[in-house]
Amino acid sequence: MNIEVINVSIPLRIPIRETEKPYVRIRGIYSTALTKIFLDNDFEIVQPSEEIRERFNLEEKILSPHIDIWDKDDKQGIKIETLPKYRSKIIDLFSTNFYDTIFRYEKIQDGSIYKGVIYRPAPWGGLIIKLTPNLEGLLPQNEVEFQKFSIGDTLVVEVKNPRGPHGLPLLSTKISIPGDYAVLIPEETVRISHKIHGSKRTKLLEIGHVIRPDGWGIIWRTSALYADVEDLKEEVERLTDEAEKLHEVALNSPALTKIREGLDILEVEFPANSKKKLDEIRSKVVPTVRGHHWYKSFSNNLTEIIDFSEKTLAKKVDMETLSNAIEEYVKKHKFPKEGDLIKIHHKKINGREIFLGPARLVLIDNSEEFPEFRMYRRFKPGGFYDGIEAQKEVGDYGITIAKMFDDKLITVYYDINNKLKGIYLNLNTPIEVYNKEVRYIDLEIDVVININGETKILDSKKLEDYTKSNNVTEKIYKETIERAEKYKKWLEEEGLKQILKKCEEVIDKITEEETEEEIDMEL
């Protein structure tokens, strides 16, 4: 199928009105610290929770946000949906306040609209739509089965989910026109935000049915709660004009072009140092125990303990004493114990997560401020170990050393006869421990001793590329390069001896356990 591609002018924008200050809505475990940061940098907070209103003495502004922020599913950072004009300002804001944050960007905007071309049937049902020469999306089966489409037909579609099933953006032919108080949808109905209740809900239903334009429906947003009738009427008229304008642009645009901008989606990951900085910022607003955001991302059970401690006990106990007590409780009751199977979350800068293990926790060293966990793993034969340039053979095993908040993960490789094959130092964000899990973000630079005894630094080009694409800050890049040189020198001097001594303690303990098991079997 040959498709002619023609350049067009800048696409339309989502018709949410701009204001003197950008409006920000924030939800989740980081909301207090982030609210302070945004207020200090001349943003305006809208739809604040009751708790945030009290802490910052804010008015109850029920207005639609230009920037929407909520927790990632794993609580290790946040997601941000923003009008494109504010994207660079947000990135600058987080880079300035948290040098070690990791940024990820969706390649396609949520709510963007394309004049696409039906390319081919999808193997799992639905249709693959060509949006641009280099971008495809999925129109799902439920939108296809009641309509007649032919390969090569043009189709106006909206991106409903940038990360849809099968790795493709999820599309819809049901175009929405969002505004400040309302969203026009191509269904003759009236819907209302679930946050609006009682008589106001009934009134908005009545108003909606009266002013709804033919062929369109209305979804009243939460911001409609305090708007008067004239404002609502004017909004719907404005959005109707936008819908007509969009229809005209769609008719006159060539295929494979974007005809309306959407919202940029950013993901911001907070490593351990960022969480500590968030603690500091939050402590300027309300009593905050040391490790607050780490605990909050730990589990729901700890969330309850932290909330109770800060709201109740902080009135009677100084924060340092309280922080020490909680830290002791977590280490005793929530940390992994010797014999546990540990999952190692090896997360890449681009968001891909590799699970190492499970590894058996053989030994915990509590001789220093932060505990060190020494784990044992067996490897399957076949192939080669990256970096140490050794073949994977039957009986190979590894000892992994993970010290809490350390900026490196050490794995030592042995053969079946306990002969050293190599050492791998993975440079990463500070290691965090959660229940029976170890978590960090791989910074793509490693220091190794290979099977020939050579000490090398690997992979610096990858981190350089991530820095150029603004996934990490220049400061992270420079610091990681310096750390690699430092650890290379350390391995060449006293580091190798120190690591092997720790491994010997693990091997001795494993040997002792195996001997005891053999005696038990004989008995």
Return the average pLDDT rounded to an integer.
92
Runs in which pLDDT lies below 50 for 5 or more consecutive residues are 1-8
Q: Which structural class matches the secondary elements?
A: alpha+beta
Main beta sheet: 7 strands, mixed, barrel
Portion of residues in beta strands equals 25-35%
N- and C-termini, Cα separation: 76 Å
| Integer-rounded radius of gyration | 28 Å
- Helix count? 12
Helix content: 25-40%
> What is the general shape?
globular
Total strands: the figure is: 27
Strand order of the largest sheet: 17-18-19-22-23-24-26
Summarize the structure.
This protein has helices at residues 31-40, 50-56, 87-97, 141-144, 198-211, 229-252, 272-283, 292-296, 300-311, 319-333, 460-468, 474-522, and strands spanning 23-26, 44-45, 67-71, 77-82, 102-105, 113-121, 127-132, 135-139, 154-161, 170-172, 177-178, 182-185, 190-192, 217-220, 257-260, 264-269, 341-347, 353-365, 372-378, 384-385, 390-391, 397-403, 408-414, 420-428, 432-434, 437-449, 455-458.
How would you characterize the overall build of this protein?
With 523 residues, the protein is an alpha+beta fold. It contains 12 helices and 27 strands. It has helices spanning 31-40, 50-56, 87-97, 141-144, 198-211, 229-252, 272-283, 292-296, 300-311, 319-333, 460-468, 474-522; strands at residues 23-26, 44-45, 67-71, 77-82, 102-105, 113-121, 127-132, 135-139, 154-161, 170-172, 177-178, 182-185, 190-192, 217-220, 257-260, 264-269, 341-347, 353-365, 372-378, 384-385, 390-391, 397-403, 408-414, 420-428, 432-434, 437-449, 455-458. The strands form 5 sheets. The protein has a 7-stranded mixed β-barrel with strand order 17-18-19-22-23-24-26. A 6-stranded mixed beta sheet has the order 2-1-3-4-16-5, covered by helices on one side. Strand 1, helix 1 (31-40) and strand 2 form a beta-alpha-beta unit. Helix 1 packs across helix 7. The chain is globular. The model is unreliable at 1-8 (pLDDT under 50).
